[in-house]
Amino acid sequence: MQISMTINGKEYSHDIEPRISLAQYLRENLNLTGTHIGCDTSGCGACTVTVDGAAAKACTLLAVQVDGSEITTIEGMANGNEMHPIQEAFKENHGLQCGFCTPGMVMTAADILKNNPNPTDEEIRHGLEGNFCRCTGYHNIVKSIQHAAEKINA
Amino acid sequence: MIPAKFDYIKASSVSEAIGLLEKHGDDAKLLSGGHSLIPAMKLRLSRPEVLIDIGGISGLNSISEDGNEIVIGANCTHADIVNSDRINSDLNILAQTAKHIGDIQVRNRGTIGGSLAHADPAADYPAVVLACDAKIEVEGKGGKRTIPATEFFLGIFTTALAEDEIITAIRFPKVANGNYQKFFQSASRFAVVGVAAVKDGDSVKVGVTGVSGTPYRATAVENAYSGSSDAASHAVDGIDDLMSDHFADEEYRAHLAKVMVKKALEA
C-alpha cells in the first residue's frame, strides 16, 4: 500500500505492507534507528515519537494509519549539530544510563512541556507513566526535564 | 512482533464502514485508536483478515451539547476528553476518569468508542457510562439505535453491538456531582477495581468495573444509600462471577470493591 508522510521535515513515500508498524517503518525502511522497540506492545514507551505534535507509541500504530501525518523522531530534535534543549538537559543532568529508553523519554518530555511549560516534579512523574527506564534512573530524568523547562522558558 | 497478514481498508464514512462490515462479517475488525487491537494482533490473540480503519471518518470526533446532554463522538480520544472545557465543566467525572487511562501516549490515540466496543472488564469508562446512565448511539445496516449503558455490556469483551454495527457517539446527561475512584494495577494502569458514583440529593448511582466479568450497577448499594452509613458493604451483593487473577483474588477484590465504593460515596 502506498503511503507518504513528513518525517523530521522531509517527505517520504513508500509502498509497504499494512501490517508494518510505524516503528518498524522508521527503523527498517528509513534507517531511523533512534526510535527503539522495547516491549513492542505499547507498554514501555521506548518507541515514542510525535504524530502531528502529540506523543504516540510507534510500535502500536500501523504506518498506513498515519499516512499523511507529520512525524518527529529523536533524529529530528537537534538542529544540525545543536542539540535540542531537552537533549542538552539530559546530557547535563545524567538523565541517561544505558540510553535505551532515552529517545522515548525525550519525545514524551517534549509532549509534557508543550502542554505544561512549568510542570511540577509530580506532574513530570505522572507524565512519564508510559515510559520505563530499566536502569531505574528516574530521578535524573525528572531533573533533566525540569532543567529543560527552565532552558526553554529562559 | 508482526501481526498476521490482513487487508487494510480506510473507510471514509459510517455507511461505507457498515457496508464493509456486512461484506466481510466475522473476518473483519474495526480499527480506531488501535491501542487494544494492535497489541492483540501482534501477540496473535486476534487475527482479523480485514481491518476497517474508521479513524479518519469525519464527524465522529466532535464533542457537542444537545440540551441537557453532552454528545461525544466515538472517535474522540481520551486526550480530547481530558482537554475539553465542556466536559470538564458539565461532565467532570468523565474528564477525571479519562485522565487516569493509560499514559500520555495512549490517551493521545485511544478512543472512547473503541474502549467501549472492546469491553475490557478492567476498562475505566464502563463504570462511568453506567453510573451516568449514558446512552450508546450505534448505526448498522438496519439503521440507527440507542443502547442504554445498562444494557450494553454482556460479558468479558462482549457487548450488545450487532456484527454490522458501529458506535457513532455516546450521549451523557450533564452531571454535577460525580466522581471516579480507581485502584490501579501498578504496571498496566488498568483498574483492578474502578467505581463511579453519581449523586443527586438523597440518591446515588454506582457503576463498578474490574470486579465482575461484566461491569455492573451496584443496585444494592444504591438502594441502601439513603439512610444507611453502611451502603458500601453491599458492593458485591448478587455478583457471582468475581474475577480473580494474580493481582487480586476473589476475596481481596470483593474487599477492594467495598473500599472503593465507600471512597466514591464519601468523595
TrEMBL record, chain A:
What's one GO MF term for it?
2 iron, 2 sulfur cluster binding
State the InterPro entries in the record: 2Fe-2S-bd, 2Fe-2S-bd_dom_sf, 2Fe-2S_ferredoxin-like_sf, 2Fe-2S_ferredoxin-type, Beta-grasp_dom_sf, Diverse_Oxidoreductases
User: Per the database entry, which stretches of residues form a coiled coil?
Assistant: none
Q: Which domain of life is it from?
A: Bacteria
Q: Where is the 2Fe-2S ferredoxin-type domain?
A: 1-77
Keywords linked to the UniProt accession: 2Fe-2S, Iron, Iron-sulfur, Metal-binding, Oxidoreductase
Q: Does this entry carry the keyword Transmembrane?
A: no
Which SUPFAM superfamilies does its entry note? Answer: 2Fe-2S ferredoxin-like, CO dehydrogenase ISP C-domain like
Quote the Gene3D superfamilies the UniProt record gives: 3.10.20.30, [2Fe-2S]-binding domain
Protein name as it appears in the record: (2Fe-2S)-binding protein
Species per Swiss-Prot/TrEMBL record: Maribacter algarum
What taxonomic ancestry is recorded? Bacteria, Pseudomonadati, Bacteroidota, Flavobacteriia, Flavobacteriales
TrEMBL record, chain B:
Q: Kindly list the GO molecular function terms attached to this UniProt entry.
A: FAD binding; oxidoreductase activity
Q: Which part of the chain is the FAD-binding PCMH-type domain? A: 1-177
Listed InterPro entries = CO_DH_flav_C, CO_DH_flav_C_dom_sf, Diverse_Substr_Oxidored, FAD-bd_PCMH, FAD-bd_PCMH-like_sf, FAD-bd_PCMH_sub1, FAD-bd_PCMH_sub2, Mopterin_DH_FAD-bd
Q: Under what name is this protein listed?
A: Xanthine dehydrogenase family protein subunit M
Q: Which SMART domains match?
A: CO_deh_flav_C
Lineage, top-rank taxon, reads Bacteria
Alphabetic keyword roster: FAD, Flavoprotein, Oxidoreductase
Pfam families found in the cross-reference section = CO_deh_flav_C, FAD_binding_5
**Gene3D superfamilies in UniProt:** 3.30.465.10, CO dehydrogenase flavoprotein, C-terminal domain, Uridine Diphospho-n-acetylenolpyruvylglucosamine Reductase, domain 2
